[in-house]
Amino acid sequence: MLDQHIADALPKAWMRDDWFACDAQVIRHYQAKAAVVAAIQPKTGIEIGTRCGYSLLSFHLASPQTHWLCVDGWVDSDSMQCREHWKRLVAEWTIHAHVMRIDSRKLTELPAADFAHVDGDHSYAGALHDLHLVADVPTILADDCDNASVRQAVEDFCASTKRKAAFTDDGLRQLAVIT
Hints:
The protein has helices at residues 2-13, 24-40, 54-62, 79-93, 124-133, 148-161, and strands at residues 44-48, 67-72, 97-101, 115-118, 139-142, 165-169, 174-178. By secondary structure, it is an alpha/beta fold. Helix 2 crosses helix 3 (54-62) and helix 5 (124-133) runs parallel beside helix 6 (148-161). The longest helix is centred in the first third of the chain and has 17 residues, at 24-40. The protein is globular. The protein starts with a helix and ends with a strand.
């Protein structure tokens, strides 16, 4: 049921002319991410790298009661469009979300949460920094682990914090659930 709900909602919610096209493979990616949230039903969540809000919408469909703190610097060429699209999605779907418009590398701490999604800076240093920002969060979902720098950051983070990562190939990008 959740998978179908996401498959129906995402294409309608997609930003027009987005360079990141919504296709069946992309939908499966968001379904896999939403399944993690559905399993834990967090009361609070942090999303580092919210861009257009596609993950946020998928998470909301999996756990509508979750309150989200989203962080994004919106520094790319399409950032203004993405930011406005994010605002529309949050309003249209009545998602409990607040956003901090800041480069996460400028942050030294974030509030406590039950779940975190790390999908911000895809460099080794950036991903490692973002993971350490949410180190006290019980469940962390790291995206883009098919990127060697991100995967190494996840592995090094787990080694230094004595946590475990379960990697999943969702057909688009590898995800890591860190517990």
